[in-house]
Specification:
The chain is an alpha/beta fold. About 25% of the residues lie in helices and about 30% in strands. The longest helix is centred in the last third of the chain and has 15 residues.
Length: about 200
């Protein structure tokens, strides 16, 4: 079965697709909720504004189709904005509801101490129970570009990073995971993480 890569006009589809294919996945671009119903694993990339992202997801029915995929036992992985939209809301777009698959809201880094956005390489600490960290050295480095972050939660943070403040580098629950960093831009560590997710999802050996 192929992995669905969601096309909603907000993600760097080419580089994400290439990274997935590099680690052995068969990838199909999916543009509608109806199409997603045929898949058991999907990736939601994301670059841009929270409000625009949610508008585009809703226009294609993905706001309903993603929870439906998880309810039938499918696996999901979100990237960058694709992680932030899993929460209930974001300070980037007041009044716009997120998917609400995780509680809480996305907030902006405070100004003054360091430059915002957080851009470049930073180390990530995975919790031992997180399958995404399998085979990665402690404090592995990943590539970030973001001005807003998901606060650390004991309930769903599975990997942490720090820039100005501690924040969630990855969140996860059940078969739903997401990363604030870009694994497709994170070289060997990013490919290893994608491999671990796809193994968890049963898409590669």
């Amino acid at each position: 079965m192929a992995v669905a890569l969601l096309d909603y006009n907000m993600g760097n589809l080419g580089s994400v697709r290439k990274a997935l294919e590099t680690v052995g996945a068969r990838v199909e671009l999916v543009e509608s909720a109806r199409e997603l119903g045929k898949f058991n694993c999907c990736i939601l990339p994301g670059v841009g504004n929270f409000g625009d992202g949610m508008e585009n997801l809703r226009s294609r029915g993905f706001d309903r189709a993603i929870p439906e995929l998880l309810n039938r036992g499918g696996a999901f992985f979100g990237v960058c904005l694709g992680m932030q939209m899993l929460l209930e809301a974001s300070d980037e777009a007041p009044g716009v509801a997120g998917l609400g698959l995780f509680p809480g809201r996305v907030v902006r880094f405070p100004e003054g101490r360091e430059k915002v956005p957080h851009m470049g390489w930073n180390s990530v600490r995975f919790r031992p129970e997180c399958p995404l960290g399998e085979g990665l050295p402690p404090e592995s480095f990943f590539y970030f570009v973001h001005s807003y972050y998901v606060p650390v939660s004991e309930r769903y943070t599975v990997a942490e990073c720090e820039y100005i403040v501690p924040f969630s580098a990855c969140i996860g629950r059940g078969r739903c995971f997401a990363a604030q960093f870009h694994p497709e831009k994170s070289q060997r560590a990013g490919l290893r993480l994608l491999t671990s997710f796809l193994r968890f999802a049963g898409e590669v050996e």
